[in-house]
Every structure is written in C-alpha cells, then in structure tokens.
Amino acid sequence: MGKKVAAPERDQGFNSLLHQVVSSWCEVRGMTWATLFGQAGLSEAVGTDIRRGSKPREDTLRKLSIAMGLPLRDLLKSAGYDDAQISRLDQEVTWDLTEAEEVHIAAYRLLSEDGKAAVNDVVALILGRARVRGLALKVVEDLL
Q: What domain range includes position 86?
C-alpha cells in the first residue's frame, strides 16, 4: 500500500496508456481489475472498455482516481485528455466545503507523498467497505 505508480510510456501489449497504468497499479497491489472497479463503484464493463482502448468519461476517471489514490489529472492525461480539456475540467469543479473539510484539505496538503498515499489508501478502503456494507444491507432488505 502507498506505492506510487509512475505514468509510463505506452508499452506493447496495452491498448492505451490508461490500460497500462491501471494494470501496473493493480499488479503492484496484487489486486484484480474487478476488485478495483468494484471499489470505485464502476462496472466490470467499464474495465473492459479501458482494456480495449476506449477513452472513459471524466466522472469515470474521477471515481477511479479516488479508488486508486491517484491524482485525477494523471488519469485524465493517461486517458488521452489534452491540457486544454484538463484545464477546463479543473475550472468546472467547484466544492461547497465546510470549515472542517477545508482544514482537513489544508492538513492533507502538508503531508509528505508517503503520508498522502497512506491517507488515499485508507479512504479507498473505507469507501470500498461502505459500498460492500451498503450492498449487504440492500440484499438483506430485499430478502425481508
């Protein structure tokens, strides 16, 4: 956990740089694509599309960036978004943050890269468990 995956040059055997980045990330962590995409709240079909070289939507990459603990900008770049598209997306994002959230963000920015990676891993783990717990509750509700 917490290892960085550099955005490599596109290699033979991969249909896109994003395909290579996701594959490398999963390999380093011993994780399957299905597990990653489940934690991101995305279908396995989205993973298949990425493996085939399709360019995913920005909201798909946002979910992946959270699950992977990687900057959205890096995934956008590896998916083939150009600098103008990335800048436009940066400008479109607005957040209505509470004071406590702003403090947390400020503290996060002070962390080392290893500290940030650890926080990202914990958040991805929590989000993954929350989805699994929510799914389990849904199954139980459906049975009742």
A: 17-143
The residue with greater pLDDT, 20 or 103, is 20
Q: Which residues contact 63 (CB under 8 A, 6 or more apart)?
A: 40, 41, 42
Find the largest Cα–Cα distance for the chain.
52
| pLDDT tens column, 5-57 | 444 444 567 889 999 999 999 999 899 999 999 988 999 999 999 999 999 99
In a domain, 3, yes or no: no
pLDDT of 130-143, one tens digit each? 555 555 455 555 55
Sign of CA dihedral 122, 125, 130, 131: positive
For residue 33, what are the contacts with CB-CB under 8 A and spacing of at least 6?
A: 22, 23, 26, 44, 47, 51
In a domain, 4, yes or no: no
> Is 130 within the bounds of a domain?
yes
Exposure on the CB side of residue 21, measured as CA atoms within 13 A: 26
Provide the number of structural domains found in the chain. Answer: 1
